């Protein structure tokens, strides 16, 4: 009898990976294909078909990790959303950052909300809610709902969600479903980020399900969450923000499995970001307050990752006051562009022999379909979108011949429908001979054009204008410095919980010291930077092999690059288990009264032990229900609790509040179970 196989898939901004793993957790086959954002089914199907097709009917579990939700946060892209804020004042709206995230016109505030004790502060203005829903239902893909103190009483949020479903049929996410902590502004940002991702995740899940069905794979489909646990597709569609850092979480699990190490620094380098996590005893540390991603800190429990917008496809650009900078915007590497579209080579040849300008190296391509966005495009943007169906558009030519087209393409890029090409670290690696899998000629032309731009337009660089290696070497060194600084910063955070500003300043200083020693080993130095011998770096991800050997040499740190490191995310995708957490809060609003805040509203008890018993019962039941709905085959419940109390000689024991957590976990349900 054949053993059941597990199929792991990771869809990133640049590559889609697939692996087949047996019950002994050994990789039987692996594949890597370009991600096709305009139609995800193409890249996913190619990756799966590159495995061993005769084995696919034996698959009993499919699990998917993705960096698409993380990338959408880092790049500031997402589907159009209307935020319905209940009881928020102007200060809270400003603190939330929603105007920057969604645009001020997409924020609607209505009367309502509760106070800190869970009592209704102001009645919900259902008339205003109905008017807002009817006004926005045809303009957005989803609604985000957040009410003041909804974690203490969610009734107003639940009612608004009912109205959204009744009047629009669009997805709606409530703040109390995603976060249990106080902090209305951050909760509003979290629920808005969640709503923006729904269509991205829905498109991805539908693509995978269609491909699996066409290949006769009848196994359950699971998605990796940011904490490394698994949920089924239905649960992922309800809370897609939970899949932020899905890719990095899967890479940590995969890196540990492939290397066999239980203590390590896992560094995952992709096309858009570099993500670093410290692993102790085989488990990464979790961030319960939310991971910092691209300037946002959504209230989701996730692997504690130090993430920067630095990847193989990061744009290399001029930054005022800084000079040459890398990222965070992702562009299509010129070497990849020419590999897929050889017709751009004559344009690059022409640009290499002409005066530099800021439009050079820019070709626009379609990135992804978003029906809600496409339906709202003005006529000039609609025409530009149709023009992209014929292939890349040379922005330099468009800027000279049809400025209206160039401006429309720029707006499509800002909306996430189109993407530009540009000079990237991947191109620099091609020029230097470190990488060769795409078109080296285009990379060399790009280096010459970019180098001339930097020198003539911005006064940067000391290389010769016709020398492609000079600027490429400087970019390579900048990538090494950026990765090294983040590794040092992660080590500082793990050793001592420094403030962000302190860690940034100290890591810059230490990295500069280490890199100076790397570039000139003969130069005497009183100090040296060295990582602990028992905590090596495990480097995974597509571009990692190009950079991490040099990083490890400069930092004097051990380096593991295990077999199948380039598909570690897909390996880790099938190694997690289902885990659902439910947090409840108990307070003492007045002496001798203990209040439990749950989904059905607050409930008071005269004794603390009775309140705790009730909270454990409610939290356990909800966690078990969530775990079974998320696809767990069997469930075990564990509890964690943090009590905030003091004891003194005068008052005795004084209880303030308690946070009780029920954790329901178990293996995912496989085919036939």
How is the secondary structure organized here?
Blueprint: E1 5-11, E2 15-21, E3 27-34, H1 40-49, E4 59-66, H2 68-75, E5 81-86, H3 90-96, H4 98-102, E6 107-110, H5 126-136, E7 142-147, H6 155-167, E8 172-174, H7 175-178, H8 184-214, E9 221-224, E10 230-232, H9 233-238, H10 246-259, E11 264-269, E12 274-280, E13 283-284, E14 286-287, E15 302-303, E16 306-308, E17 314-319, E18 323-330, E19 332-333, H11 334-340, H12 345-352, E20 363-366, H13 371-374, H14 379-388, E21 393-394, H15 395-401, H16 403-414, E22 418-422, H17 425-431, H18 440-458, H19 469-495, H20 500-519, E23 537-540, H21 544-555, E24 559-560, H22 568-573, E25 578-590, E26 593-598, E27 601-605, H23 608-629, E28 636-648, E29 652-666
Parallel strand pairs: 1-4, 4-9, 5-6, 5-7, 7-8, 11-23, 19-22, 23-24
Antiparallel strand pairs: 1-2, 2-3, 9-10, 11-12, 12-13, 12-16, 14-15, 17-18, 20-21, 20-22, 25-26, 25-29, 26-27, 28-29
Helix pairs in contact: 1-8, 2-8, 3-8, 5-6, 11-18, 12-18, 14-16, 15-16, 17-18, 17-19, 18-19, 19-20, 19-21
How would you describe this protein?
This protein is α/β, with parallel strands linked by helices. It is 40% helix and 24% strand. The chain contains 23 helices and 29 strands. The protein has a 6-stranded mixed sheet. Strands 11, 12, 13, 16, 23 and 24 form a 6-stranded mixed sheet that branches. It has a 5-stranded antiparallel sheet with strand order 27-26-25-29-28. Strand 28 and strand 29 (652-666) form a beta hairpin. The longest helix has 31 residues, at 184-214. It is globular. The model has no long low-confidence stretch (mean pLDDT 85).
